[in-house]
Amino acid sequence: MQTELAPEFLATAEGRRADAILRKCVHCGFCTATCPTYQLLGDELDGPRGRIYLIKQVLEGRPVSEKTRLHLDRCLTCRSCQTTCPSGVEYVQLLDIGRRVVEERLPRKGAEKLARAVLREVLPRPWLFGPAVRLGQMLRPLLPSALADKLPPEAAGVARPWPERKADEGAPSRRMLALAGCVQPGLAPNINAATARLLDRLGIELSEADGAGCCGALRFHLNDQIAGRDDMRRNIDAWWPAVEAGAEAIVVTASGCAVQVRDYGHVLADDPDYAAKAARIAALCRDPGELLLMEQDRLLPLLAATRRDRGPLAFHSPCSLQHGLGVRGAAETLLAACGYTLTPVPDPHLCCGSAGTYSILQPDISKRLRDNKLNALNTGSPRAIATANIGCLTHLQAGSDLPVRHWIELLDEALS
User: What is the DSSP string of 341-383?
Assistant: First the structure.
């Protein structure tokens, strides 16, 4: 694609990066075939190719309009287009640049501005979000349905204990860190605890570092990129002593957060104080599925010993897992090993509509995508649905009569 970016952008590293990404695009249109919003709405501007043109126009100096922002806002950042693109266009990086410029040139107003400010300030703070969830559960009958749907059942907020090492067992030879995150502790605190119990059976100690919290994705993708980078630096500072002491990996049980941690090296590449550390942290980031498959020589015999027919199960692979991390089949392999029968799911590459705060900011499109996804997940008449991301879990559960669980909890229960 030919470009003529304005001098003010070409004078910056970010602008030159955007120019290089734009020039990779050959506008072949393969991306539209796998874009959920294009498939749903049928508008060229609601597909990756159309959005690339809109961003190109903005960076070339064309005026920013509400229409431009609308179509950029509608993007789920699911990365399905990046999986499809034969030219290797880093679409999400370009989108982050485009959204930031649009936000600066066309500031939001009124209720739209307030809603995003509340999300940026409340969701990344567990000490604020957790009590808000519990209060919402108490007042659920009084809340609007759109808000009540986001609240999990009260039972989901109960965690079984983390493993405790007895004095005569000695210190573990292997240690790993876990990202506590921000919304997951308030919505489903058992997920990290289940992961810790699983790894403990393999002789690996998992712990959460004091001071680490939100991965930075919430603020970064709500166009408060300065605060998002601060969240990333805070996590790096919290994890670094353990990394220097030999921690093997940083296990991130929410695949949406794992994608962001994997991006630390890119996002902080121009920070002289953090670039090298960020790259190291990104390299240590592991999804629990890929980590457990690396340990399968010891894990599979444990699963085989407790194997029984556990019934049909539909696995929803989050976009962040399959497109962002490129992890496919790991959870399914381990679930099948302990006795679940994985049912077929048509169009597994399409997004469920959760996409972080998307389900709150774009509720109509999000619900339509959720309905389509649930229809696909129910094709094989499963008894339950498993997934790998807390946002997808709560979003699907709000529209489903079947229980929706994190797959790592099912694995832990099978071994228990």
Answer: EEPP-SSTTS--S-TTTHHHHSHHHHHHHHHHHHHHHTTT--S
Mean pLDDT to the nearest integer, 260-269: 96
CA separation for the pair 274, 295 (Å, rounded): 31
Instruction: Reduce the DSSP state of residue 177 to 3 states and report it.
Output: strand
Nearest to 349 by CA among 375, 376, 368: 376
Strand ranges across the sheet with 384-387: 340-342, 311-315, 384-387, 404-406
User: pLDDT of 157-200, one tens digit each?
Assistant: 567 788 876 655 666 779 999 999 989 998 899 999 999 999 99
Q: Would you say residue 44 has pLDDT above 90? A: yes
The number of residues making up the chain comes to 416
C-alpha 270/C-alpha 357 separation (Å) is 27
- Average pLDDT (212-234) is 94
- What contacts 32, CB < 8 A, 6 or more positions away? 38, 44, 47, 48, 49
Out of 3.40.630.30, 1.10.1060.10, 3.30.540.10, 3.40.50.300, the CATH code matching 7-105 is: 1.10.1060.10
| Residue (of 180, 269, 256) closest to 217 by Cα position | 256
pTM here is: 0.92
Provide CATH 3.40.50 ranges for the chain.
Answer: 154-290, 300-415
| Four-way CATH pick for 154-290: 3.30.870, 3.40.50, 3.30.2010, 3.30.160 | 3.40.50
Q: What is the CATH number of domain 300-415?
A: 3.40.50
Residue 222 has pLDDT above 70, yes or no: yes
